[in-house]
Specification:
The protein is mostly beta strands. It has one domain: UDP N-Acetylglucosamine Acyltransferase, domain 1 (3 Solenoid), CATH 2.160.10.10. 0% of the residues lie in helices and 30% in strands. The strands form 4 sheets. The chain has an 8-stranded mixed beta sheet, with no helix packed on it. It has a 6-stranded parallel beta sheet with strand order 1-4-7-10-13-16, with no helix packed on it. Strand 19 and strand 20 form a beta hairpin.
Length: 156
């Protein structure tokens, strides 16, 4: 007989006021800021911090070591990665090989984007299906694989 684990919200999750969560979800050891929303079929692992007034849509995976600022939108099916397989394969639980991700304020990430361990500054839009492989230090609209600047916030 297999060992079966239920998805759930563990008691070590810290919620701000007026957070809305649609089950089923798997949340543990994370912090979710006031006024935020978490859709169904989302997993948010320990040592993740989500800021105030964020929206995390369904089927998103936010792994350990991710920090998301205030006023962010995370689309459906967004995947965050913390293991770059630096040794030629998975870190196999060796967390010293994992890397962190930092998302600024007012960042919108389109559906099915993949975010490797990077820093993304404030006021950035990541297009659906994009793969972010490098730090983004300038506000704008980014898309593609790898994601690159498509347009500045002023439309130029």
């Amino acid at each position: 007989m297999p060992t079966i684990f239920e998805s759930r919200i563990k008691e070590d999750v810290v919620f701000g006021e007026n957070v809305k969560v649609v089950q089923p979800v798997n949340l543990y050891g994370c912090t979710i800021g006031e006024g935020s929303f978490v859709g169904p079929f989302v997993e948010i692992q320990k040592d993740v911090t989500i800021g105030r007034n964020c929206k995390v849509q369904s089927h998103t995976f936010i792994c350990e070591l991710v920090t998301i600022g205030d006023g962010c939108f995370i689309g459906h099916g967004v995947m965050f990665i913390n293991d770059l397989f630096s040794g030629g394969g998975p870190a196999a639980g060796d967390k010293t090989k994992w890397k962190s991700t930092s998302i600024g304020n007012k960042v919108s990430i389109g559906s099915n984007a993949t975010i490797l361990p990077v820093s993304i500054c404030d006021n950035v839009v990541i297009g659906a299906g994009s793969v972010v492989t490098k730090d983004i230090m300038k506000p704008g609209i980014y898309a593609g694989n790898p994601a690159r600047l498509m347009r500045n916030p002023d439309g130029k």
